[in-house]
Amino acid sequence: MSTTRTQVAIVGAGPSGLLLGQLLHKAGIDAAIVERQSGEYVLSRIRAGVLEQVTMDLLDEAGVGQRMHQEGLVHSGFDLLFKSARHRIDMDHLTGGKKVIVYGQTEVTRDLMDARQAAGLPTVYEAAKVTVHDFDTDRPRVRYETTGPNGTEQHEIASDFIAGCDGFHGICRASAPRSAIREYEKVYPFGWLGVLSDTPPVHHELIYANSTRGFALCSQRSTVRSRYYLQVPLTDKVEQWSDDAFWQELRLRLDPEASAHLVTGPSIEKSIAPLRSFVTEPMRFGTMFLAGDAAHIVPPTGAKGLNLAATDVKYLSEALIEACVEKSHAGIDHYS
Ligand code: RFL
């Protein structure tokens, strides 16, 4: 078994893990990331697209905000639609100047990956059988396997801290003792059918639509790529929804003006996500910390998940920097 040593071993190279790695690197702290999927697979996941101010600020602080500012679409409000009338919520005015930016999670991930590669920082992709050990001590370890020319190779990372950034289905939360963890969950009785299409968005900002036929959301990724969602029964299968059926149903849930302006085209991605809210506490188990979807998930309807993950990373990075540099545990003691 090969053993390496680092200050923070990060499990998961999604946005939480990569952003944490970048912020720690900026502070001169050594971190290694272990990810079970390939980099291409991570980049192929179509997910969040609306970044709130906290996420924008953090990406700037991490030194990876340049492309986001060049290519992202700044929105200062959104529309709520009910009873066929649209009502604009002027976020900019109501919050004293805060905005959101439409910039895909894939792009955020790519920017963070590029920055990590440019700095020569280690990320192990396609790591198998990742396990966490001894996080009840001050010498926690992460073990994993890779496949090399001579077959399976075993590795161990010895660290001061483990950051569990491995998403809802990860192993970090699952490795915490059951008696030390409390979980709160609500599973919603409907699904969220999403379509991505290379068509111009129906409106320059987002429309959240309440309709007697079910909820709908008109979102976007760019001026030429749209993301639309429909609330559907959990029993629906994605194969049941042809592109035509999707567009027809979406039109019926919008107001006449939006319905008339809707530009349709072939879907480039179509999926049904079950909707669930889940929170776990605490987010610390000895020297292991959870961040992002590993600790909590919200339905994508609110466009909040990535922004909550970024907020975790903000506090966790500050706490770990304080612990590693100033040898003060005040931040990590308050993180959870
Ligand atoms: P991720 O993105 O799930 O990344 C976790 C990473 O950990 C890896 N992993 C492991 N690695 C090593 N060993 C193991 N045993 C491992 N197990 C797992 C995984 O392969 C993965 O690479 O969690 P992270 O980094 O915390 O990021 C959270 C966000 O991805 C998530 O909150 C958002 O995507 C949620 N979300 C949205 N959030 C928004 O803020 N705005 C949106 O508009 C929005 N839309 C969405 C969404 C999520 C969706 N999903 C998941 C259904 C739309 C959708 C459709």
Please give a structural write-up.
This protein is an alpha/beta fold and 336 residues long. The protein is 29% helix and 33% strand. It is built from eleven helices and 21 strands. It has an eight-stranded mixed beta sheet with strand order 7-6-15-16-17-14-18-21. Strands 9-3-2-13-20-19 form a six-stranded mixed beta sheet, covered by helices on one side. A four-stranded mixed beta sheet has the order 1-12-11-10, with no helix packed on it. A hairpin with a 5-residue loop joins strand 16 and strand 17. The longest helix is centred in the last third of the chain and has 21 residues. The two termini are 33 Å apart. The model has no long low-confidence stretch (mean pLDDT 95). The site of 8-demethyl-8-dimethylamino-flavin-adenine-dinucleotide has 36 residues, from helix 1 and helix 10.
List the helices and strands and how they pair.
Elements: E1 2-5, E2 8-11, H1 15-26, E3 31-34, H2 39-44, E4 50-51, H3 53-61, H4 66-71, E5 73-75, E6 78-82, E7 85-89, H5 91-94, E8 100-102, H6 105-118, E9 123-124, E10 128-133, E11 141-148, E12 151-158, E13 161-164, H7 172-175, E14 182-197, E15 207-209, E16 216-220, E17 226-233, H8 243-253, H9 256-261, E18 267-281, E19 284-285, E20 288-290, E21 296-297, H10 305-325, H11 330-335
Parallel strand pairs: 1-12, 2-3, 2-13, 3-9, 6-15, 13-20
Antiparallel strand pairs: 4-8, 5-8, 6-7, 10-11, 11-12, 14-17, 14-18, 15-16, 16-17, 18-21, 19-20
Helix pairs in contact: 1-6, 1-10
Bound molecules: 8-demethyl-8-dimethylamino-flavin-adenine-dinucleotide.
8-demethyl-8-dimethylamino-flavin-adenine-dinucleotide (RFL) binds near residues 293 and 305.
